[in-house]
Design a protein that fits this description.
Structural class: alpha+beta
Distance between the termini: 174 Å
Radius of gyration: 78 Å
Length: 441
Amino acid sequence: MLFLKYLLMTGGIGMILVAVGILTYDLSIEVRYRRALAAGGTGAMPAVPQVRWRTAIASAMLAWAPILIALSIVVIPSGMAGVRVSQTQGTLAGTLYPGVHFVAPLLETVALFDTRDQLFTTGSLEDGKNPPGAPGKSQALNVQAKEGLTLGLAITVRYRVDPKRLDYVEANLPQPIEKEIVPPVVASIWRELVPSYTVRDVFAARREEVRARAAALITQKLAADGIVVKEVMLRDIQLPPEYAKGLETLLLKEQESDRMGVETDIQQKQVRIAELQAEATKVQEVKQAEGAAQVHVLQAKAESDAMQYTLPLKEKQIQQSKLEAEARKESTIKNAEAAAQAKVIDSKAEMERRKLLADAEADRIRVTAAADAERMKSEAAILKQNPLLINKIVAERLSDKLQIMMVPSDGKFFFANDVLRSMNVANHGSQAEQVDDAGQK
């Protein structure tokens, strides 16, 4: 719609410029023609000019049609609202909300108002910024308390214009309202309200009460002018330097008094705790003694009850022990008798074994003696037949390094009869010496 509005405005202005261009061109030709007549020239004369007044006037009149249509179109942007102001009737009732509206061109205009939330602030904000055009920029609102001391209040009022009452605001209130209405009303209410409270009440004791009363009065006062107050904030309070110093000293003393009171309460509680602990210990010891006595009594009763069953059991155990002793005695006697009989049997068996061994040894000796006698008889017969075996046996027993050879005595089968004879002679000689030595020994 804005494009259409600007297009119509451009078309209307273009048509006016065309009409002006036509008149200018025609008038320039007429001026040239009159100059030529005045000069009296004989040359070719330009044609008699005809000014196109009707065409220019018609074009200019037609140009007002798109211009008037464009002027009748009003576009209200988002976050804004408007009210129509007539040149003949004044402010007209009704609110124009965001969107496209039509008004009577040249007779009606639209006054725009910001319907979004706005802030009125005194004193510096936490981020160090203030809304543009705010009165008392970076300066707190000075008010007097009940004692006559001056306080600096940092206040923020959040408000917005009631869209339904824009016709009343436009017709009856000075503009702009964020400068002409809100600051004086807020300042006057705080300056009327705070003097009924002391500095201590405003600063700490009744601070929320003061803020709530001020918010109620400001809301009521501005509501009558079509302004909706959403919130009133008391951000900070600047105390007078002397009062702040005295208050700091007083607060320190109060803190010291509170600390002493807390320490006294702690000590009293510690004493009470010690008393309760002592009483608890006493009660615990009494309970423990009573419990121990009850335990002893129960143990005595249990032992007494147990004795009634223990004595018969002991008697039975004694009888059982006697029977076991008699059984062990009988068993021991029987074991002794059995051991004696076993020893008798063992002794008899040992005697029989020894007898058998003696008989066997005697038989062995007899057999050995008979064998030796038989061997000696056979050896005697052999020696009798071969006397030279004695020499061989003697030689073998004398030394293990001698080698004995058995040859026939006649030497028929040997080539060295002389050698053998000499050896026999030597052997006879050595045997004779041995026999002599043996005889001497």
